[in-house]
């Protein structure tokens, strides 16, 4: 059986940007890129330390993994030794092009949300989102590059599909959102 990927900590922090409602109404958003990857960790709970907010699980291949449980997990006291715990971590990146009023806003925002699944067993998800917004400062169609001013610096990026540069103009906004979603599910044994 292949080794399960290691998830060293169960921590959360969701980051998201909120634009003024007037700017949102007049801004056109076009998704230009996206990617996602997931990994799963499953094991039997062997230790529950509520004071330190830590769990130890034994994986099917006999490894022990210590998980740090964030304060957003409110039903830690319901997890018992012998329960089967499955944690899935998904990371996603979305890049959008923004045109119109409010499109060239430069900034960064963070947000964390939690969602508890209904039912009697502890389960749910923690979503961390970090959104970085920038403004197109220059383009070089011959080299397939675009320079974007972000909150901390100017970055020049290679564009894989040069046709994307045809719909881009200096002053347009670019928004990159990174999401980390950690979901957990406990099965009582």
Q: What would you say this structure looks like, in words?
A:
- By secondary structure, the protein is mainly β.
- The protein has a domain at 21-40 and 87-187.
- It contains one helix and nine strands; from the N terminus they run H-E-E-E-E-E-E-E-E-E.
- It has one helix at 21-25; strands at residues 27-49, 54-58, 64-68, 84-100, 107-116, 123-140, 145-149, 154-158, 173-187.
- Strands 1, 2, 3, 4, 5, 6, 7, 8 and 9 form a nine-stranded antiparallel β-sheet that branches.
- Strand 2 and strand 3 form a beta hairpin.
- It starts with 20 loop residues before the first helix and ends with a strand.
- Residues 1-25 have low confidence and may be disordered.
- Residues 1-25 form the signal peptide.
- Keywords: Signal.
- This is Copper-binding protein.
């Amino acid at each position: 059986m292949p080794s399960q990927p290691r998830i060293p900590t169960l921590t959360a922090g969701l980051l998201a940007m909120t634009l003024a409602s007037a700017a949102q109404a007049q801004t056109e958003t076009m998704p230009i890129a996206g990617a996602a990857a997931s990994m799963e960790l499953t094991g039997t709970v062997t230790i529950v330390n509520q004071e330190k907010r830590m769990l130890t699980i034994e994986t099917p291949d006999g490894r022990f993994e210590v998980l740090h449980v964030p304060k957003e997990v409110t039903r830690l006291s319901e997890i018992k030794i012998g329960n089967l715990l499955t944690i899935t971590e998904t990371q996603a990146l979305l890049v959008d092009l923004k045109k119109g009023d409010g499109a060239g806003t430069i900034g960064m925002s963070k947000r964390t949300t939690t969602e508890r699944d209904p039912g009697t067993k502890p389960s749910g998800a923690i979503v961390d989102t970090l959104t970085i917004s920038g403004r197109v400062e220059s383009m070089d169609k011959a080299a397939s590059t675009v320079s974007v001013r972000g909150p901390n610096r100017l970055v020049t990026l290679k564009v894989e599909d040069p046709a994307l540069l045809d719909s881009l103009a200096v002053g347009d906004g670019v928004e990159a959102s990174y999401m980390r979603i950690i979901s957990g599910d406990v099965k009582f044994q």
